[in-house]
Amino acid sequence: MSAIRTGFTWSDDKANWSSNKAISLRLNQMMDDASINDGVTTIDFLLADGTDNWNYYTTAGYSANQQRLAEVLCGDIDKVGYPIETIILTEGGGGYTNGTYAFTVSGGTGTGATGRIQVSNNQVVMTQIQTAGSGYRIIPAQIYYTGSAFVLNAGGRGILNDTAAINALLPTGISITAASLFPAGTTLTGKSWNGSNWELTFSNAAINVSGYYTCAFGIPTVVAAIGSGGGFDYRFILANRRSYRIPAGSYFFSQGFELAGINNAQIDCTGALFYSNGLDNQGILWSDTCTDIEIVGLRCQNRYSGGTLDPSLRGDGMPCTFRGSFNVMRNCGLESGGDFGLIIGGDTLRSYNLQVLDYGNRSSWGDCFHVGNINGLTINNFESLQSGDDVIALYSDAGSVAASWFLNLTQPTFVGGMTYVNVNSAGSGYTNGTFLCNAVTGAAQANITVAGGIITGGTVVAAGSYSVAPLFNLTPLGGGAGGQVQAHLTWSSITGSWAGANYNLFQRVGYRTTMTFTDSLYRMRVVITMSNTNSGSLTTTATFEDGGYGYTAQPDLYYSKGGNNVVITNGRVKKGSWRGILIGPYNWDNIIISSVSFDGIGSNGIVIGSGTDSYVAALPEQKGICLSALAFKGVGVAQYRADVTGNVGKIFKLNGGSISATNTGSDNSTLQIEYSSNMTVQIDSSLGATTYSGTGNTNVAYATRTTF
Q1: How far apart are CA 540 and CA 552, in angstroms?
Q2: How do residues 617-654 score in pLDDT, each as one tens digit?
Q3: Fewer CB within 10 A of the terminal residue: the chain, N end or C end?
Q4: Alpha-carbon gap, residue 470 to 472, rounded angstroms
């Protein structure tokens, strides 16, 4: 076979391997198990169970085979690295100084790359590589926090107490990209052998620490004096596109086929089936740092024996994710299983410009497509034969600001005055009449009314100022018992500042000048202004919408990652157990879904926003959503989803858009539109005129025809 060193050859001097003969044998075996023919590397070291033929083991959260395969796919055969082919702009940011600027590159393993940046209207509008440089490598890895230190997982990646080898792999000063763990710009500052693993130290303290982290070393950073703005983001593409071939066969992966830190490659999996059989295990694990990768012909399957086939309860196991930037999945699909068929969008970094072409979902226990945290997505020519939940879910997974990975912040304190009186408990035995009562703390006062011996209500006399609503002293009401009256606050300002891990905010959720948060219960809104810093910090400036909502205690704020620039076309659906299309609950805009046929939907055909919100009018509006040439043959099909009712559509808080669809079959043909504006709707139905209902709409043109 051809002479080849894989990504596991830390040193070209094989004589130095004698201190660890087991490792040297493994390296030699790996070199024998990969071959290059006509520029295509065949990765044939996988056995039918997905393991390689010399060593495989799994520990919690880690599979050695996953990481080693990822290293091979990085293509760094001789540890010499590559030139930088191009730099692609993903976010222009704001607040920068107009002009054209030279940049250099830091944090990578190579040298010599330079380029230029153009700033117009205070945004970066163009990036260009002028000198490609050499020696740049992106190195996938996993690190583990022991409770006191970070270690390079799995026996130091096969480098046992070999200082020269670890320095060749991870030189001091190399960058680490792990957005949920370290701030942007973090570099490796030191390495030491603890007797079993390499302990690593870094230039910044960790944002939060729990256990295992998949990361990438060596992703370069642009260095340019373009002003004090924030939000500029980009992706580097390394030169020399690589081609790989995985032979046809059925491969078992306990933790998944991992694509971590891979750059500029094509992987031909035609005839290969990757499967897992454990709870939440995945066929493919795309990393947020994967860039310019095309995977072709792969089928995934989950064979987990637990869970449930009840479509309304769903099952377990997630066979495939799709993340990173400028990546393509072509002629791939899901055979069976999975709480979701294909999860699309960023985890710890926002994803950009992904393509899913010719995709087949034969049976997913949950959503066919579950999408969130993305800017730029094309799905073209897909088939979904049965989905146990939504078919197309642009869902975005809104979560608590304090608890969610994408912010992990402690919010500032909300302050407001009393706007009305809550009677928590009416009690009994009080003196009838109206009595002036003081709050137990602060300056609030209220006239509290008693009728028939029980407390019936109250009116505000003095609002006071509070962060937590006070109770009232009820002594003036006489000798009754059991009553409790509390102020209800309406927020008007905030004090203090956001604290915690607000690093990498633009990289996590995309650049924006404001962020709209909602209360977790009522969806009331507060808009927080962003500061123009590279960390994307939140300032304490807040605008309270809907008159400034309030509570008796501090609210739990939610944020939706959302997405934009999504085009989904040419789909065929046979049986979706819940909704055909879901877009929401909020933060989605510039969406096109067209030419999709739905043969049987268990609940609603189209849902935009969320009909379960207590106060729909307070939802943040979504903009620019165009749905066209949709054909529904049955919505609200009882045998698919008996626990819910279904309508043609439920549209909440949409500003700007159009919907056109046909509806046939025996079902509920009601269309509900609430608090929306500037949109057109055309429903053609064979069931008679579609029943239209809605409130709070402005400039909504609705039409229905029954001509077939």
Answers
A1: 21
A2: 777 889 999 999 999 988 877 666 666 667 888 899 99
A3: C
A4: 7
